[in-house]
Amino acid sequence: MELTDVLYEKDNGIAKITINRPNIYNAFRAQTVKELISCFRDAWDDNRIGAVILTGAGEKAFCTGGDQKEKGDNGYGSSGGLGNGIGLEVEALHHVIRAIPKPVIAAVNGYAIGGGHVLHVVCDLTIAAENAIFGQSGPKVGSYDAGFGSAYLSRIVGEKKAREIWYLCEQYSAQEAKEMGLVNKIVPQGDLMAVAEEWAGKILEKSPTALKMLKYSFNADSANIEGISQLSMGSLAMFYRTEESAEGKNAFVEKRPVDFKKFRK
Ligand SMILES: CC(C)(COP(=O)(O)OP(=O)(O)OC[C@H]1O[C@@H](n2cnc3c(N)ncnc32)[C@H](O)[C@@H]1OP(=O)(O)O)[C@@H](O)C(=O)NCCC(=O)NCCSC(=O)c1cc(O)c2ccccc2c1O
To answer: Coiled-coil ranges per the record (predicted)?
Structure first.
């Protein structure tokens, strides 16, 4: 597949996938998600690869979720069935990150917000730069990920914290994220990729079969969330076609305060 939104490199057993839309803080559109899925599948299929690093281009952001400027009144463009009617194959992306039988390390180099936050949540490990910022924003912009974004997040940080993250849509520092178990390690920004590669190198020294079975085992315990995710995305497709969802997206794009009051009936 020709790559326009993503950079993909393979070196010394490590695949590095970089979301490359830095001007809009690495927000993803339909094409970005397709390319990410394609790269993960390639890394899965390549027996020389033992670990994958996912990161964002530039120094500002890892990923800020769905590209709000590409979002129309019925989702992200595609009218077909892929992406559960939303136009973004986010479910398939979450699935391939979990299903690839090789550890995936998120190297979070800045904002991990909204759907970008969910991406690092579903990765096996997260290494954060000191300037990284974490948070969910769906309820502010007329969206939600009530699959892995909520149910799996609450397994990581606990129910109370996960509810706080979604209900308040605050932003959290790398240190706060580490304290709640969302991040494995914090490093100076300039060391981020070197440390991610060092961790990937340590993984490469281990038995690939043992790692594969461990990943399957960790996944098995939360596999039911795929079903919850399907329900979430199916309902999101309907929500996107409402005035309430449009108000959230339009307020962000128009850089004005959002007004959801009239929808509280
Ligand atoms: C991340 C921010 C808090 C940073 O704020 P800051 O003030 O530092 O920077 P700017 O806001 O000026 O941003 C710089 C530049 O980037 C553009 N940009 C940033 N994020 C996005 C985005 N998501 N989409 C489009 N454009 C973006 C911004 O407009 C600026 O460009 P200019 O041309 O104006 O200079 C702040 O940027 C922020 O809050 N961003 C929005 C983050 C957000 O709300 N994301 C959630 C969207 S919903 C979502 O992610 C989502 C999740 C899912 O799981 C889905 C599943 C299935 C389908 C859809 C899903 C989905 O949409």
So the answer is: none
